[in-house]
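ingest -> validate -> predict -> emit
validate: passed (alphabet ok, no gaps, 239 aa)
predict: started
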Amino acid sequence: MILKRIFILAIVSSLCLTVQAQEEKEKGPHFISINLGANIPLSDYQTLDTLDASNVNAGLAFSLEGGAYLNKIFGLGLSVGGFTNKIDQSQLSKQLNKEVHDDGSVSISADDWLNLYAMVGPYLSFGGKLIVVDLKFLGGIINSSKPSVTINASESGEPTIQKNYSESAYAFGFNYGIHLRINLIGGLGLRVNAEGIMSEQEFKNRVDYIRGTTVESTENKLITEFKTLNLGAGLVYTF
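emit:
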């Protein structure tokens, strides 16, 4: 995968600068931050197949992040965080009524999507005491939990239930973006974030179709490409 190769090359390039950084013994803009913001779903994650449970709304993104610098420009860091999104039940219900049921009898109950990650990688930073601009490209593990969804409907006057079961999957993912650190007092400051997350997850997708006392079960694979944009802010301590 091309992105994996780019990530490995970035790590190696950063490590190759260690010798020069140690010789110069420059103090880098090390930091630790806690961040909160909006998660904007894109691609498959925004509009999954209706029968596989989706149409997600913008959600909440959160992270704890820190970086240690080899010199004033290059650093290595860790980001641990996640994002959660609610299924747009109203939109999904309208879509199902239009495509599957024409009597307006669909009702939906659904949990939220939850995605957690741990990423490491290089940082490239510029600036001074007042403002620092960070560029990052991290890679690591992302765990995605597909929520359970229950769809109640009526076909020819007979109640039917479709249960999409929750599933969890792990995959390699990337976290890349730009941060702006604005010093307020001492080393404490405000951080403004714009970053993307991408991954591809493969879920075991189990669905039960219940009509009266009859239950039909299916199980297949669901491959979802996750692409999201996180916009937010946080508190940062630079030292």
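The longest strand covers residues 214-238.
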